[in-house]
């Protein structure tokens, strides 16, 4: 039987995780979570997984919305799993996804995660130790994968109310984050930022790059701009990061308009 993984990514950490899982289970389709996507979940999969980064200790808004709007066909022998990638702590992303699936009548059988490169560039500078951190994160990924291959069933801890309240407070403003972005004169209007934005929140009109109020906070536009032309308030002199095994072209292949 086939397998399917839904992923959300900006710098490529979660796509790297999804690819490694897909290679291990075999016969696996990778589906990006993005604006305007098909929300029908197939009923003929052996495994269905969700791979995502942790934002403010919880789920990216687009991932949560996708689960809430998805059309599931309950099937008793489909194995559902979730894997979070994070720079500091695993937070409550997996329990949140578990709860959202439960409301759809779906049981989440396994939830795991792996600490990877911390990449919130508007909060802090990017580490210089990309190779060392990547090696460590690859080892962590390799410890998660056998559980998914074996279809391990593992109880998932409860969501802590304090953490959930903090998550909600921070996520209230995420959609307007890009309104604080600026674009320098080095921008050559290549359109990459527009093509890789999962929310379709970037507009290029009359040689001007602008942003709307639908930002998801993935920061792909800032991190992946080849000219470093897009910035938030304090990012001008900060290093950029993208997972070394996930290129701009690969991100584009998933998020481009159909």
Outline the structure in words:
- The protein is 32% helix and 17% strand.
- With 258 residues, the chain is α/β, with parallel strands linked by helices.
- A five-stranded parallel sheet has the order 2-1-3-4-5, with helices on both faces. A two-stranded antiparallel ribbon has the order 6-9. Strands 7-8 form a two-stranded antiparallel ribbon.
- Strand 4 (79-86), helix 3 and strand 5 form a beta-alpha-beta unit.
- Helix 1 runs parallel beside helix 4 (130-149).
- The protein is globular, with a radius of gyration of 18 Å.
- The two termini are 27 Å apart.
The oligomeric status of these chains comes to single chain
Distance, first to last CA: 27 Å
- State the low-pLDDT regions, or none: none
Give me the count of strands. 9
- Average of per-residue pLDDT values: 95
Sheet with the most strands: spatial strand order:
2-1-3-4-5
Q: What is the string of SSEs from the N terminus onward?
A: EHEEHEHEHHEHEEHEH
Keywords:
globular, five-stranded parallel sheet, alpha/beta
């Amino acid at each position: 039987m086939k397998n399917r993984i839904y992923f959300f990514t900006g710098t490529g950490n979660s796509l790297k995780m999804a690819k490694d899982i897909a290679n291990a289970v075999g016969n696996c389709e990778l589906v990006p979570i993005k604006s305007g996507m098909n929300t029908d979940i197939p009923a003929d999969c052996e495994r269905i997984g969700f791979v995502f980064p942790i934002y403010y200790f919880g789920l990216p808004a687009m991932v949560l919305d996708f689960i809430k709007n998805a059309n599931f066909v309950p099937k008793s022998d489909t194995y559902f799993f979730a894997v979070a990638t994070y720079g500091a702590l695993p937070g409550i992303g997996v329990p949140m996804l578990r709860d959202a699936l439960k409301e759809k009548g779906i049981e989440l059988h396994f939830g795991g995660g792996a600490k990877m490169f911390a990449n919130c560039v508007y909060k802090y500078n990017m580490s210089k130790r990309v190779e060392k951190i990547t090696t460590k994160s690859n080892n962590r990924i390799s410890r998660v994968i056998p559980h998914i291959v074996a279809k391990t069933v593992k109880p998932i801890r409860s969501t802590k109310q304090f953490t959930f309240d903090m998550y909600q407070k921070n996520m209230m403003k995420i959609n307007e984050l890009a309104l604080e972005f600026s674009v320098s004169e080095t921008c050559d209007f290549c359109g990459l930022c527009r093509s890789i934005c999962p929310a379709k929140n970037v507009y290029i009109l009359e040689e001007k790059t602008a942003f709307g109020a639908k930002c998801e906070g993935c920061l792909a536009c800032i991190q992946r701009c080849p000219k470093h032309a897009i910035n938030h308030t304090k990012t001008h002199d900060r290093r950029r990061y993208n997972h070394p095994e996930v290129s701009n072209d690969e991100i584009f292949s998933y998020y481009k308009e159909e």
